[in-house]
Amino acid sequence: MPEYLSPGVYVEEISTGPRPIEGVGTSTAGIVGQTERGPEEPRLISSWLEFQRWYGGFIPDVSYVAYAIQGFFENGGQRCYVTRVASSEAVASQAVIGNLQFVAYGRGAWGNNLRIKVSPPSNNAPNQFRVSILYYTNFPDPFVDPTDPANAANPDLRPPDTLEVFDNLSAEPRASNNVMVVINSRSRLVRCDWTDDGPAGLPMTGFDAGEFSQGDDGAAVVAADFTGSKELIPVPAGLPTDILGRGRGLDGLATVDDIALLLVPDQARDDLFTPINNAIITQCELLKDRFGVLSVRQGQSNVNNVDMPRDTLYAALYHPWIWIFDPTINDYRLVPPAGHIAGIMARTDIERGVHKAPANEVVRGAVEIEFPITKSDQDMLNPRGVNCIRDFRPDGRGIRLWGARTLSSDALWKYVNVRRLFIFVEESIDEGSQWVVFEPNDDLTWGYVRRSISNFLTRLWKNGALFGTTEEEAFFVRCDRTTMTQDDIDNGRLICYIGIAPVKPAEFVIFRIQQYTATENQQ
Fold first, then answer.
1. 132 - beta bridge partners?
2. What are the distances in angstroms from CA 53 to CA 131, 163, 189, 221?
3. Number of alpha helices (DSSP H) and beta strands (DSSP E) in the chain
4. How far is Cα of residue 57 from the mean position of the Cα atoms in its chain?
5. C-beta neighbour count of 38 within 10 angstroms
6. Which of 124, 180, 375, 412 is the most buried (most CB within 10 A)?
7. Which residues pair with 328 in a beta bridge?
8. Any bridge partners for residue 169, and if so which?
9. 482's torsion region: left (phi>0), alpha (psi -120 to 50) or beta?
10. Three-state SS string across 231-277, please?
11. Sheet holding 322-326, edge to edge
12. Domains, the chain
């Protein structure tokens, strides 16, 4: 209770009405896999161009991740968290210039293709300098300095694939243009820190002193590398232990609450299929706030022998692979469809809502499918929970996703949109009702809870996510003496029962037609 101890006017703010529950996002994907370069900690990417700036381009015959991410954005995805996979034995490349130690932002031999040049600043200020960072996918031999205008006519000159220039930097620790602060906050290629000698001015030098070395890819990546870790990423000796970030692989994505779709494009490879499928499904089942998108293995032409992951409510399987155009070979390439499917899910969520089944949608970017899927084939696959990609181009409808089933044998949860709608509702209520914790467990609080959740579900019903012509048919919310005993109240338990009627997709559209005459109509 407020205290009124002296005469005067007291202006107070009071809370009226139920607290609103805001729906959580459902279209953000989490993607794990090998990339050309880049950080291993989870990073939010909002476009295909941004992915290329951070992680490079395609790496054919090594990973399908770049193709999957391109397909995700091409099909309507808008946000995804990416975590790069590196071997547990990989080592980050590094270079030392003066008292400043640079390390490639991400472990692996790719960092050996970095070069750093320190030169005078454009403002000619004393004790300031410019840092130029170059990266080549394939380092040129001989190397000609592309930042020197005198080399413009040199036939051996090759522009870098990525160039970062940080000008007018200072070694002063408290300066706003401090070299370590600027580079560590803006560079997509390196991180840096002072050596044991502490901050000092950098010598004006060419590229010779800025040569990176010691980067190593280590052994071939295995399933455990995709699973990853929540721990700090290993760094070379002499650097702060957190300079390359924390968390990588699937375990790293487990710490990101925004993720609603989880996929590892390379899980379709033979050696990764079972362990990575299990890891994806396990994370989705444990966290209950995300849904796994899985691809079949390549070459599964026999519909009777398609390899299946384990039974689960929290994932769906897609078949077959698709052909896309690959600019690296100027030809078509066969890739697993998971990234494209995740993009379709995101597009459907944004345009219609999570309650709409992500099916009967064109697969953008697909120019052909691995092998044709007929109606008879899908008659065998659909009941098993395998969602097919079908070619309807003879009918003028393109290549479409033609299935919306989960991998669950439970008929209550056989549709992708039903499972994802419940994930959305549960997560939204969980995040929107945190204010209830430690409130008085009485009728007043119960009423606030009922109204908050009812208002949220009413909005869903009006948007078409719930079935029924009235609110009473669409949902119910109970939180009163009938939902909890005195023992529950004495032990601090507030229990609310919620029931919702999700809309189900019209998977089988049946028109029954009979012969009809005017005479029969009169009778």
1. 117, 165
2. 19, 10, 9, 23
3. 13, 22
4. 18
5. 23
6. 180
7. none
8. 129
9. alpha
10. EECCCCCCCCCCCCCEEEHHHHHCCCCCCCEEECHHHHCCCCHHHHH
11. 331-335, 322-326, 368-369
12. 1-21+440-523 (no CATH), 29-87+244-416 (3.40.50.11780), 94-210 (no CATH)
> Does residue 93 contact residue 111 with C-beta atoms inside 8 Å?
yes
Phi, psi of 67 (to 5 degrees): -65, -40
Q: Calculate the CA dihedral of residues 101, 107, 110, 114 and round it to 10 degrees.
A: -10
**320 cis-preceded (ω within 30 degrees of 0):** yes
Q: Are the C-beta atoms of 66 and 74 separated by less than 8 Å?
A: no
Structure tokens at 101: 């130690």
CB 90 within 8 A of CB 37: no
Residues 6 or more apart whose CB falls under 8 angstroms from that of 384 comprise 306, 308
CA distance 439 to 88: 47
3-state secondary structure of 37: coil
Q: What is the pLDDT along the chain (523 residues), one digit of tens a residue?
A: 678 899 989 888 877 778 899 999 999 999 999 999 999 999 999 999 999 999 999 999 899 999 999 999 999 999 999 999 999 999 999 998 888 899 999 999 999 999 999 888 999 888 889 999 999 999 998 999 998 889 999 999 999 999 999 999 998 888 899 999 999 999 999 999 988 766 665 655 555 567 899 999 999 999 999 999 999 999 998 889 999 999 999 999 999 999 999 999 999 999 999 999 999 999 999 999 999 999 999 999 998 889 999 999 999 999 999 999 999 999 999 999 999 999 999 999 999 999 999 999 999 999 999 999 999 999 999 999 999 999 999 999 999 999 999 999 999 999 999 999 999 999 999 999 999 999 999 999 999 999 999 999 999 999 999 999 999 999 999 999 999 999 999 999 999 999 999 999 988 888 988 887 766 655 5
CA distance readout (Å), 58 to 37, 133, 254:
11, 22, 26
